[in-house]
Design brief:
It is a single chain. The protein has 163 residues and is mainly β. It has a single domain, classed as Immunoglobulin-like, CATH 2.60.40.10. Helix content is 14%, strand content 44%. The chain contains one helix and twelve strands, in the order H-E-E-E-E-E-E-E-E-E-E-E-E. The strands form three sheets. Strands 1, 3, 5, 6, 7 and 9 form a six-stranded antiparallel β-sheet that branches. A four-stranded antiparallel β-sheet has the order 8-4-10-11, with no helix packed on it. A two-stranded parallel sheet has the order 2-12. A hairpin with a 2-residue loop joins strand 10 and strand 11. The longest helix is centred in the N-terminal third of the chain and has 23 residues. The radius of gyration is 19 Å and the shape is elongated. Keywords: Membrane, Transmembrane, Transmembrane helix.
């Protein structure tokens, strides 16, 4: 009988720990930058400041643009890539297409967040065929101690000047 009690208490404590981790560790988008108008054949770097809650480091699995139904927007439709900017200095920058990302930009896949306020940076450019009306947000997938989570950040529409 004593062993059954210990097993029951152990299972209860593990379950409480998992619930605690699940609901006290999270990522929130704090701010975003952008432009009023976007030109074709220019690269834009847009910074999204995030805040990590909790004491456990998380790992970003992936990030992509989504439409109003939460479906992934393919890179063939809109040309984009996400980075983590460890220097947190991007804001909103417009560059020529030949511009290379800064050295402080890190690949987002399996990036372990160790600071409280990382910057998620979006590199995006539009060609004359880009349809931007369906871009509704950014979906980020991440995990805390292997527990998967995801979040969608609604973003402002992109007004592209195609003339």
């Amino acid at each position: 009988m004593q062993i059954k009690k210990r097993i029951g208490v152990s299972i209860f404590l593990i379950a409480m720990f998992i619930i605690f981790i699940r609901y006290t560790n999270d990522i929130h988008f704090v701010s975003q930058t952008g432009f009023d108008n976007y030109d074709v054949n220019r690269k834009y770097y847009l910074g999204f400041n995030m805040h990590k809650e909790g004491f456990i480091n998380c790992k970003i699995k992936n990030c992509w643009l989504v439409d109003k139904n939460g479906n992934r927007i393919k890179n063939e439709d809109i040309h984009y890539k996400f980075y983590i900017d460890e220097s947190k200095t991007t804001g909103a920058v417009s560059k020529e297409l030949s511009f290379k990302p800064k050295a402080s930009y890190k690949d987002i896949k399996n990036y372990a967040i160790k600071t409280d306020n990382p910057n998620l940076d979006l590199e995006i450019y539009f060609d004359k065929n880009s349809n931007t009306e369906f871009i509704q947000g950014i979906k980020i997938t991440y995990s805390f101690l292997g527990i998967p989570k995801s979040k969608i950040k609604k973003i402002e529409s992109f007004e592209v000047d195609k003339y």
